Amino acid sequence: MTDTSVIDPSSTPSTPATGASTPSVSSVLNHRAVKAVSAALRDAEVTNVDTLVRILPDTAPTAATAAAQLGCPVSAIANSLIFEVGGEALLVLTSGGHRVDTKALASRLGLASAKAIKRAKPEFVKTKTGQAIGGVAPVGHLERVRTLVDEELASYPEIWAAAGHHQAVFPIDFETLVRVTQGEVVKVD
Prior knowledge:
It comes from Apiotrichum porosum. It holds the Pfam family tRNA_edit. One of its GO terms (molecular function) is aminoacyl-tRNA deacylase activity. The protein has helices at about 25-30, 30-45, 50, 65-70, 100-110, 120-130, 175-180; strands at about 55, 75-85, 90-95, 115-120, 145-150, 160, 170, 185. By secondary structure, it is of the alpha/beta class. The longest helix has 12 residues, at about 30-45.
């Protein structure tokens, strides 16, 4: 169940979020990256895009903080992890309760070792996705990003993912998440 403190922009389009230095709902919804995510979802024919993105009352730099604000299990959060593999971005959408086993992942990708998979630096993430770490969405990137989706996320009827900003999220079901990301379903831990 969704926490009532999460702001539904369709009912309060210009109400400021809580916190003295927190941006307003309007400024978050008009953020370039959030608009790119909404456009990507619209292009993928996801329904109700205009009311899909929700604004959290506070920043959510981790899956645990997002889950606490949403009132959902941490494992129902799609944690967006960007890795650098041979100069290209690889997005791994994990269940919030999982860690990525890079050795197993390297094997699945046909790489010689886990050393070929590097945790991406913030500048690399921004260049490839147009989004900052802490708000990286599954879609709406500057360029096509290969995506792997944790099979554990299929256990949840509603998954929450970042929407391009550290305070913006959206709900999505597993099948739609895989479809819109053109993701490969894998075991990540």
